[in-house]
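ComF family protein: structure, please.
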Amino acid sequence: MKKMFQNMVRGISGVVFPNVCACCGLENTEHQRLLCSFCLQERFEDANPDNAPVSSDIILPEGVIAQHALWQFDKGGDLQDLLHLLKYEQLTGIGVDLGRELGVRIKKHSLLKQKLSFFPAVLLPVPLHYLKFRYRGFNQAFKISLGFQQVWNDLSICDIKSVVRDKNTRTQTGLSLKRRRQNLKNAFKVKKPAEIKDKLVVIIDDVFTTGATTFELAHTVLDSGAKEIVVLTVAQA
Ligand SMILES: [Zn+2]
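Here you go.
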């Protein structure tokens, strides 16, 4: 009887609040997911179909062994909308869904799969300055890391107080690479080096553009004793 009642309530709430995909708006049969399996698996273009060490044409700085983005950024398209919903509309579940998909994709990248499986590693979401964190209420890179961790459950996420962003930089959009680098110089600080020492540090962010942010963070973390760095993002701009 109880079960029948529960099913009835679930049925009614399904009519009032149908579970729809945040991307395509169609009914989503995946429970506790904001994105449907079609949008996660078919909608976007793989940014690194050949599983190369880099998904861009950038030259990696010393100590950074790979840079991989899940999908090609589509200016004005669905992926941009999704990342906007995640960052500015508080739909943090999108970050978790995207992070999980990124984790699944890395299992098909032999170099990265091997590195993440056999080396002591830690996930490092690109830290937000505390003022920005207080304003937004969450760090989108941390949400992506949470999803990633559901697939790679042996990996821990670096404690929020271990590596911090000291400098509250202006938006990087529209700045040249040189200005971006100047803007970000010494933006990050490692407060607890033990957390990253001798480890493979997996830096996680939403979008990879020029690498100015992630490579500055990589540089800081390497200086504090990290062994190697991998940069993983959802989108490749
Ligand atoms: Zn969808």
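Notes: Residues 14-42 form one domain.
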